[in-house]
Amino acid sequence: MATDHDIPKIGIKVRNLYKIYGTQPASYIDAVNDGMSKTELLEKHGHVIALNNINISMEPGKIQIVMGLSGSGKSTLIRHINRLIDPTTGEIFVGGKDVAKMSTRSLREFRRNQTAMVFQKFSLLPHRTIIDNVVYGLEVRGVEKARQLDTAMYWIDRVGLSGFETNYPNQLSGGMQQRVGLARALANDAPILLMDEAFSALDPLIRMDMQSMLLDLQSEVQKTVFFITHDLDEALRLGDNIAILRDGKIIQKGAGQDIVLSPADDYIAAFVKEVNRGRIIQAKAVMKPLKCLANIEGPAIKANAVLEDAAKTMTDDGKNVAHVVNDVGKPTGVLTLPDVISAMVMPSVSQSSKKPQEPDT
Q1: I need a labelling partner for 262 at 20 to 30 A (CA). Which of 4, 11, 163, 235 fits?
Q2: Is 334 helix (H, G, I), strand (E, B) or coil?
């Protein structure tokens, strides 16, 4: 295998990040902090706030989803990670180094060696064959030719495109072209993968296939993935953690099932109301302590089993209760069928809403 699997995993921490567009952006940070709205800032001062006090910690080797509607600031945010956009103020620590303070030379090396990006529009070079597209980043880095080809062929095979390496992009379908884009990003062996609406232009079935492939590959390569989407189902399927943006501000962040169970406000509740909760929420999220029901008789259900499967297991076994067990089979809690059914039903907004979470410090 030609890839480097000893590359260390790198986390990302964004602190107090602001991006304001206008002639004097830094002059309005205090006004925004004091509560000036995006509309007021534009109408009174002709400035646009794209990001408002963003604080996110991304664990190494995990998939961080940032989602929101068009204009929420999610694409602006991802372009700050590799500093395609300069912040008005704030810090972006990648592996302990502040990208916002990097010199031109350091930033160039950072982009070449630490990050790879997959775009919505594929961004393939039309005059290059598939293998020549995949090796492009390695060429830029000065990797010797034999290793370029070895690495490219490995990833072309891993994304299911063996036999197409001498084709040109216009000879492939949209889904196949996006596989090329993913292979090119993975070939760089960068620890950070930035994906901006990477699957949004694909048909639904192809999109699901690409999501499955990403999850399979991630189980192997364990990159730190920053994934932008406007689709909640995609976010819930892919994300280890999710942050939801509105008007440049994080409204809620956390594990997908926590957001589904406890939406922060009416805006988030509207997002999650159509979600099939039984296929998202896991047994461990609604189980009770073991002491609640001693000496119960019922099936064993894994802690990460979704409620839909847990309910089927209990009903098939004719039991209203079950033990929740960890990966080694040790009981960690108790699950009751009424609790499962209750959690699968979306509560009203007034019942589910709570105050938005405070930013990390």
Answers
A1: 11
A2: strand
